[in-house]
């Protein structure tokens, strides 16, 4: 059976060029001197090290599914370097 078709709303309803125009502005509403990570690299480093720690260890998908973790590791950024190409493992 086919899933019911959802109506596009908000960002999804815009034409691709308008979406790109908005996306290009990301973060520019805050001046560089007010961006905390650009002012404090130690704060940025600590935040990066904490990634995912707010999630209960028992609920972390990679700790529950080693095959999923292995597949993600095998991809190793390939998807981000070749737009539209997804490697299957």
UniProtKB/TrEMBL annotation:
Skewed-composition ranges (Basic and acidic residues): 15-24, 56-68
Low complexity composition-biased segments: 69-80
UniProt cross-references to InterPro entries, sorted A to Z: Stress-induced_KGG_rpt
Region listing for Disordered, in residue ranges: 1-89
UniProt protein name: Stress-induced protein
């Amino acid at each position: 059976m086919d899933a019911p078709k959802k109506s596009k709303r908000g960002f999804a309803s815009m034409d691709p060029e308008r979406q790109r125009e908005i996306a290009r502005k990301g973060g520019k509403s805050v001046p560089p001197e007010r961006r905390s990570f650009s002012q404090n690299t130690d704060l940025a480093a600590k935040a990066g090290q904490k990634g995912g720690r707010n999630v209960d260890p028992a609920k972390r998908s990679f700790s529950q599914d080693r095959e999923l973790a292995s597949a993600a590791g095998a991809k190793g950024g390939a998807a981000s370097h070749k737009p539209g190409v997804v490697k299957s493992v």
